[in-house]
Amino acid sequence: MTALPPTTAAAGRRGTAGRPGAANGAPAAPGTRGTRGRKAPGWLGALPLLVFAAIGFGLPVGALLYGAVTRDDPATGATALTGEHLQRSLQGPYLGSLVGSVQLSALTALIGTVLGVLIAQAVVTARGGALRTAVLTASGVLANFGGIPLAFAFVATLGISGVVTRLGRLDSLGWNLYSFTGLAVIYLYFLVPLMVLVILPALDGLRPQWREAAQNAGATAWQFWRHVGLPVLAPSLLGGFVLLFGSAFAAHATAAALVGGSVPLVTLKIADALSGNVLVGQENVALALSLDMIVIAGLVMAVYLPLQRRSSRWLH
Amino acid sequence: MAALTPTAAPARPGPAGRPEARGTAGAGARRRPRVWRGVVLTLAGLYFVVPLLSSFVFTVHIPNQGVSFAAYTGILSADGFGRSLLLSLGLAAATIALSLLLTVPALLAVRLGAPRLRPVVEVVCMLPLVVPPIALVTGVTTVLRWGPDHLSRTPFYQTFLAVQDESFPIVLVLAYTVLALPFVYRSLDAGLRAVDVPTLVEAARNCGAGPLYTVWRVILPNLRSSLAGASFLTLALVLGEYTIASLLGFRPFAVWIVSVSGAEARMSVAVSLLSLLITWGLLLVLSRAGTRGAATTGSVPSASAVPSASAVPSASASASGKE
To answer: According to the UniProt entry, which residue ranges have a biased composition of type Low complexity (chain B) (predicted)?
Structure first.
């Protein structure tokens, strides 16, 4: 993943610089096909993937877009463009759920970024290879440990009759797992390992020589981080934050298994609307909400990919 | 660090004092990180281990009654367990096969025959990251609704029904393949980047190998660890996926866990715990396989990091995929 951008960049560069070469490659293809007869064109291998993507991805997303901006008139059967669904998806409880999702994602992503960096830095500064391998492996597993199993593990731990809740008498302290805070605690369980995986290579890229140079110049540890460490890490940190935000934002199963409808989240609202729990005439609001989500996730990715590219340019 | 300046200042007259001063400063600087490092790692360890431990305690210890392993022994005979697990495993196998069959030829093609398609293939494979599973499933339901609405008189209708077959819903395989594309692509792309494909193909051709033989016996063995990584990520994604399956009304493993949680809280926690342990085991096997494939001992840590590094997006995606 960290290695991805350079190639893309290289591919892009090759695309423009190599335009003449590519140009003579492409027209040449029919020629070679003509001489050898049976040779398949080079793009044939990519065809199944592109066809599949058009059907499996393009079709549903197209239907989603179409449904979000059109309305069927039940009387005449005519279809008309409308901004009504999108407008409704940005009002009242639907807007509340979008805001709730954004708040929860931003908060957990922020905490997850800080904790992930602390853990990764602890691993990087410790010299034991075994600790590093263990943390990397555990992070790889735990970052994937989302969804239903995670929700139930936390129900058993911090739920109403959870083991820790009973041992610590947390319920008398006002603890409630089925709340915004509870969800944040659970989300961190897969967000922090994700951050560790993202940031560890970047922390590795901070050369010890830079630190030594700063020390020799009389810089304190704080000055080193303020003027050298953080600026170099900034793209990776922001990129990691954005990735965590996206993960938390798209999360549905944990919340669905846990809080039902008690915390307003856009994924829960969409699932609700899809299951038919919606007022007559508002069926398409699920599509409009999904479109809102795609727009937000798209913005997130639009921030993430260039940052990723930039940080990998610095740290290799 | 603050100690460095005063110590270094008196040391100025004698050059011999320099190394000594540096030594004490170094030791001081090193001791402080050791404390915070210990604190951070201990707290993190607690946060990540306690839920697992207490899940186990929760499943075997019944308040006022003592210890019982009934939650585990009852799993196999539980209603629907076998069927839903088999369905999930079948879906996973089909998804892995389909996603590899689609991406491997495409990635080889953009390296060998059509380099100009490369950005296209990359964008196509990465786009699903922008569409959360819950948004994908709303699109899929919309498309599936067209079936009865518009197509009931056409031959397409049979396709719509076959795709939604209860015993093996192909529509889930299609949706999961879409979700898995970014991770499979990244894993294979990372693997292919370490291999000089055109040279290998040329060498194989010079030795008289046909194209299929070249792919099967020369290219794929070189990609073994990234193929395994891609398969594992897909498996984890499909086994844990809940959103799409439940909203389309099918009952694979994750949906089953939720459906028994009401009546059998202990069992649902036990199954969750087991599924984590199984995933963990698979990942260990995978990283072991990755390190065995590595040529030098120097690359062992990096080899074990490759699945995790490629697991980053996958992690995010499969976290979101499961959600």
So the answer is: 1-28, 299-323
> What digits encode the pLDDT tens for the residues A106-117?
999 999 999 999
User: Rounded distance, CA A214 to CA A63, Å?
Assistant: 57
**So what CATH class is B72-292?**
mainly alpha
Question: Cβ A133–B304 below 8 Å, yes or no?
Answer: yes
Q: Which residue of A has its CA nearest to B257?
A: A148
Q: Which residues of A touch B29 (CB under 8 A)?
A: 221
> If you average pLDDT over residues B222-250, what whole number do you get?
87
Inter-chain residue contact B132 with A249, CB threshold 8 Å: yes
Integer Cα distance of B205 and B208 in angstroms: 5
DSSP result, A126-145: S--HHHHHHHHHHHHHHHT-
Dihedrals φ, ψ of A295, to 5°?
-60, -45
Contact, B321 vs A143, CB < 8 A? Answer: no
- Report the half-sphere exposure of B17 (CA within 13 A, side-chain side): 10
Smallest CA–CA distance, residue A219 to chain B, in Å, is: 8
Q: From the list A61, A153, A166, which residue is nearest B131 (CB)?
A: A61
Which one-letter amino acid corresponds to residue B251?
A: R
Instruction: Write out chain B residues lying below 8 Å of A126, CB-based.
Output: 37, 41
Neighbours of A238 (CB within 10 A): 17
The pLDDT value given to residue B16: 41
Q: Coil, helix or strand for A79?
A: strand
The answer to whether B75 and A213 have CB atoms below 8 angstroms apart is no
Q: Which two tokens stand for residue B154?
A: 């056409």
Tell me which residue of A275, A299, A274, A300 sits closest to A287, measured CA to CA: A274
Backbone angles phi, psi at B66, to 5 degrees: 100, -160
Q: What are phi and psi of A99, to 5 degrees?
A: -65, -45
The domain spans of chain B are 72-292
Place of tokens 């199984």: B278
- Whether the CB-CB separation of A124 and A204 falls below 8 Å is answered with yes
Q: Which residues contact A129 (CB under 8 A, 6 or more apart)?
A: B301
Helix ranges, chain B (H)? 4-8, 17-60, 70-73, 81-112, 118-126, 133-150, 156-163, 170-193, 197-206, 211-213, 220-222, 224-240, 243-248, 253-261, 265-293, 300-322
Q: ipTM for the complex?
A: 0.77
Superfamily of domain A57-313: MetI-like (1.10.3720.10)
The helix-helix angle for A147-158 and B224-240 (nearest 10°) equals 60
Spatial contact of A14 and B115, defined as CB atoms under 8 Å apart = yes
Close Cβ partners of A242 (under 8 Å, ≥ 6 residues apart):
A109, A300, A303, A304, A307
- pLDDT tens digits for B29-38? 455 557 888 8
Q: What are the pLDDT digits (tens) for B132-183?
A: 899 999 999 888 887 666 666 666 677 777 777 777 888 999 999 999 998 8
